[in-house]
Amino acid sequence: MAEKSEIEWTDATWNPVTGCTKISPGCLHCYAETFAERWRGIPGHPYEQGFDLRLWPSRLAAPANWKAPRMIFVNSMSDLFHEAVPDSFIESVFRVMSTIRRHTYQVLTKRAGRLAIWHAAHPQFWDLPNVWIGVSVEDRRFGVPRVRVLKDIRAPVKFLSIEPLLEDLGELDLDGIDWVIVGGESGVRARPMKSEWATSIRDRCQAQDVPFFFKQWGGIRKAAMGRRLDGRTWDEFPIGRGRAPIGRVATP
Ligand code: SF4
C-alpha cells in the first residue's frame, strides 16, 4: 500500500489483497510477483509470504485515513477477482469505495469472467460514480474477450490497460470504452512492442473519441526508452466521464 505511486496513470495504490497466480501471457513477467518474491521468508515483512495470496482486512480502513482526494489503483499487487478472494471480501472492498467517495478508485482485473458474475449479483455496487472498472489486455486470444465482458459492466468509466502489448490487436472495437492505456513490457526479459501496434490503438481511440494514455515503451532501460509516441506524450484521462481525476489535465 503506497500513499504515492510511480505508476503514471494513478496517484496511489491500495492493496487490501496481495499475491496472485498467473492466468494468461501478460502475467509471464509479472512485476508484482518479482517484487513480492524478493521478500519471501523475511519475518515481519508485508511480503513474508512472497506472492501467495493474502487478504489484509486491516487495510480496508486506509482510504478513510487519506484525507485529500486521490486516484487509487486498487490491488496493484494482486487481482481483486482472483478465485481465492471470497465474495464477501470483494464486497467489503466495494463497500469502502462506495462509502469513501472523495477518492476515485481504479479496479483492474484479468478475471473478467468472475468480475461479470460478481457484478451481476451485486447491483448495489453498479454505477458508483467514483469507481472505474478496467480489464487488462495483452493479446487477441485472452485480452479481447475481456473487453467484450467489460462492455456489459455498469461503471462510469470502463477502461483498458493494454500492457504489456504483445501483438497487434487488429480491429479492436472501443464502443462503450471510456479510456485506454497502452504500454510495453519492461525488465530484463521484456518482450518487444512494435510501434505500429501502439499507433494502431491510438488511431482507433482517436476515431472513436476515447482518451488515450501512452504509459511507456518499456524494455530493459524503461526510463531511457521514455513514453513519447509519434513525437509527443499522450496523457489523456477520461475527464467528464465519472469523477474528474485529481490533479490531472487532459491533453488535446
Ligand atoms: S493477474 Fe496481474 S497480478 Fe496476477 S499474476 Fe497476472 S499480472 Fe500478476
Any overview of this molecule?
The chain has about 250 residues and is of the alpha/beta class. Helix content is about 25%, strand content about 15%. Strand 5, helix 4 and strand 6 (about 130-135) form a beta-alpha-beta unit. The protein is globular. Mean pLDDT is about 95; it is low at about 240-250. It binds iron/sulfur cluster (SF4). Iron/sulfur cluster binds next to helix 1.
Secondary structure class reads alpha/beta
Average pLDDT across residues? 93
Per DSSP, the total helix count is 7
Poorly predicted residue ranges: 242-252
**Estimated share of beta-strand residues:** 15-25%
Shape, principal axes of CA atoms: globular
